[in-house]
Design brief:
The chain is built from 16 helices and 26 strands. It is an alpha+beta fold. It has three domains: 111 residues, Aldehyde oxidase/xanthine dehydrogenase, molybdopterin binding domain (Aldehyde Oxidoreductase, domain 4, 2-Layer Sandwich); 180 residues, 2-Layer Sandwich (Aldehyde Oxidoreductase, domain 4), CATH 3.30.365; 340 residues, Aldehyde oxidase/xanthine dehydrogenase, molybdopterin binding domain (Aldehyde Oxidoreductase, domain 4, 2-Layer Sandwich). A seven-stranded mixed beta sheet has the order 3-5-1-12-9-10-11, with helices on both faces. A five-stranded mixed beta sheet has the order 7-15-14-13-8, sandwiched between helices. It has a five-stranded mixed beta sheet with strand order 16-17-22-23-26, sandwiched between helices. A hairpin with a 5-residue loop joins strand 22 and strand 23.
Length: 695
């Protein structure tokens, strides 16, 4: 049964907006404490080896220094299997930038100054940070991020490709990219009577609690995590990183004083994850009518030697287009580098750049319009599983977007349109993202005698508008006004909630709230007054009977206009249009903002982002905003976002699909395809910089 009353879909203003504008919303480092101790991390400046000595005398002599934490005096962890988090347990160094300690001082300035006075010495080993596909030591991961199967194969791909009248065999690459949320990663740690409280910038307070409890051998109920507001995460705050462990360790040395750790922008490039670089070989074969007969997508990407992370880069290829012969593979190169992790739309963002650029090339080779080619290869059922789709409106998005964009008026000939020194082109690409559900989220609703309702759930608002959307869902399900709902989130003292990741947050938390609301309305039928003692119920995510029976995905179509200067190779994107199919939109205003933000990040992926590794030293050299480029206002032109009206009652009680990841998927390919249309130059390696055209 789907919620049907009126608040769902309304463009409601953010209920936390005024608090943020006034500066009253507390972020992790802003929670007030008397006499906090500030910690500045010490990081290894070799890529591989071991510490042979660490001279802290000069740092300890600095006025205001409280202590220096190293592997020699660090608390012992109960569990050390996770090498990313088991810091300071040995003198071994696995990558440049790894935490090897921290300086504790009365101020952040003193801590940073004293950290420069610590003198570590090393036994240095030869390191390897080179990603390339011809290596003999490629590793087959047991499974991919998200639990997906590593490889898939149907039919005779090689034979069908060799026999195809039209064929493509090309390689596409995406570089390392780093999450750069506005709020740096930060943690305040406080120990009291054997209990630990963490004020952390995180996408999931219960995920942090459970991880830290295991590491320190504690009952999870003795770890309390607080996070009412987050200044962005993009996946990098999805799971706790080593700085949280560092803060908790340091706080044990200065009990009962709190310890505050705020990472610098430069430090974030070493210890909070990143999107792995990928090398994607794609082969497509089609018959004479432009219908695909063979699809293969073979990926090589990097991981850290100390902890495996396998991005699911080729997984979207399994669902996108119909073909009787199909194959996807993933192989890893284990390197002496930091551990990669989640970055917005892991798998789909890099994988759909490769696939959708290849599809554009194939459409041209077949003599077909790129929109028509995609429609011609639309599957009737999920190509991987054979299941029907709960809803699949990619064709509707393509047609609506083409009509709005003026697609059908374009001359398909490359370099056909010029405006002074600017070559002008247009391109298209599809978007997709699966509908995930994470188990366990629960919500409590307390009906009060004054007619108001307290809604409690340990959810996270990472800037996406969850404070507002969850209040809408609760008010809608209770059939009351939003002013009658008082929402509490971001605290492990509240009912368990999964984290904000995989575009699951609102779907999971909202389903638990709807379940609680329905129970409450059953307890208080027909407007029955609330008793003086109130009424409390707790709901959970209901089992979905369609799981395993239907394929559930969001889809979209993105169109781009690109201008390339014929004299300099400068690239501009004056216009983007995205049309999406996402079930029922919860909040038209914040939902549009999410999709627009994703498309902006996709533009950044297309033109700017590239983490450059120095092979001599094993670290990212452009580790700040001066050198790691992201778009500013002047780089972003017109971005139009809209969605079709899609009914999908099978995905969850709201009939809604996640949107946080979807917007970035396909944007880079649409821009690359438009750049080819403008110039006749096919760029297969991101980012699309001016040198790609001038050479």
């Amino acid at each position: 049964m789907t919620v049907t009353t009126g608040l769902i879909g309304a463009p409601v203003d953010r209920i936390d907006g005024a608090e943020k504008v006034r500066g009253a919303a507390l972020y992790a480092a802003e929670h007030p404490f008397d006499r906090p101790v500030h910690l500045y991390p010490l990081q290894a400046d070799i890529a591989l080896g071991r510490i042979t000595g660490i001279d802290t005398a000069e740092a300890l002599a600095e006025p205001g220094v409280v202590g220096v934490l190293t592997h020699e005096n660090a608390p012992r962890l109960a569990i050390t299997q996770d090498a990313e988090l088991a810091i300071l347990q040995s003198p071994e160094v696995a990558f440049r930038g790894q935490f090897i300690g921290g300086v504790l001082a009365e101020s952040a300035e003193v801590a940073r100054r004293a950290a420069s006075l610590v003198r570590p010495s090393y036994e240095q080993h030869a390191h390897d940070v080179s990603l390339h596909p011809a290596r003999p030591d490629l590793v087959e991961p047991a499974e991919l991020n998200g639990g997906f199967q590593t490889d898939t194969a149907d039919g005779d791909v090689d034979g069908a490709w060799a026999a195809a009248p039209v064929r493509l065999d090309a390689t596409y690459t995406t570089p390392q990219e780093h999450n750069n949320p506005l709020e740096p990663h930060a943690t305040i740690a406080v120990w009291s009577d054997g209990e630990l409280t963490l004020y952390d910038s995180t996408q999931g307070v219960h995920w942090v609690r459970d991880t830290i409890a295991v590491l320190f051998g504690m009952d999870p109920q003795r770890v309390h995590v607080v996070c009412p507001h987050v200044g962005g995460g993009f996946g990098s705050k999805g799971l706790p990183h080593a700085h949280v462990v560092l803060a908790a360790m340091a706080a044990q040395l200065v009990v009962p004083r709190p310890v505050k750790v705020v990472l610098t922008r430069q430090q974030m490039f070493s210890v909070v994850g990143y999107r792995t670089g990928t090398i994607q070989r794609i082969r497509l074969g089609s018959d004479a009518t432009g219908r695909l007969t063979a699809i293969s997508h073979d990926v090589v990407e990097q991981t850290s030697r100390i902890k495996e992370f396998a991005e699911q880069t080729a997984v979207p290829t399994r669902v996108m287009y119909a073909a009787p012969n199909r194959r996807t593979t993933h192989r890893l190169v284990e390197l002496d580098v930091p551990v990669p992790s989640w970055m917005r739309a892991p798998g789909e963002a890099p994988g759909m750049f490769g696939l959708e650029t290849a599809v554009d090339e194939m459409a041209i080779a077949c003599g077909l319009d790129p929109v028509e080619f995609r429609i011609r290869n639309e599957p009737d059922t999920d190509p991987e599983t054979g299941r029907p789709f709960s809803s699949r409106n990619l064709v509707a998005c393509l047609r609506e977007g083409a009509a709005r964009f003026g697609w059908w008026e374009r001359d398909p000939t490359p370099r056909a349109r010029r405006d002074g020194s600017w070559l002008v082109g247009t391109g298209v690409a599809a978007s997709t993202y699966p509908v995930f559900t994470m188990a366990g989220s629960r919500a409590t609703i307390r009906a009060r005698p004054d007619g108001r309702y307290r809604v409690l759930i340990g959810a996270a608002d990472i800037g996406t508008g969850a404070w507002t959307a969850l209040t809408q869902i609760a008010a809608d399900a209770l059939d009351v006004g939003m002013d009658d709902v008082l929402l509490s989130i971001g605290d492990t003292d509240l009912p368990y909630a999964s984290g904000a990741g995989g575009s699951t947050g609102i779907m999971c938390w909202g389903s638990a709230i709807v379940d609680a609301a329905r129970q409450l309305r059953t307890r208080l039928p027909n407007g029955e007054p609330i008793p003086d003692e109130g009424v409390e119920v707790t709901g959970a995510i209901p089992d979905n009977p369609y799981t395993g029976q239907l394929a559930m995905h969001s889809f979209g179509a993105q169109f781009a206009e690109v201008r390339v200067c014929a004299d300099t190779g400068e690239v501009r994107v004056p216009r983007l249009l995205g049309i999406f199919a996402v079930g029922r939109m919860i909040n038209a205003k914040t939902g549009r903002s999410q999709l627009l933000g994703g498309m902006t990040m996709g533009l950044s992926m297309a033109l700017h982002e590239h983490s450059v590794v120095d092979p001599r030293f094993g670290h990212v050299v452009n580790h700040d905003f001066a050198e790691y480029h992201i778009p500013t206002n002047a780089d972003v032109g017109s971005i139009e976002v809209d969605w079709i009206q899609e009914s999908d009652p099978y995905v969850n009680p709201m009939g809604a699909k996640g949107i946080g990841e979807l917007g970035i998927v396909g944007t880079a390919a649409a821009i690359a395809n438009a750049a080819h249309h403008a110039t006749g130059v096919r760029v297969r390696d991101l980012p699309i910089t001016l040198d790609k055209f001038l050479t």
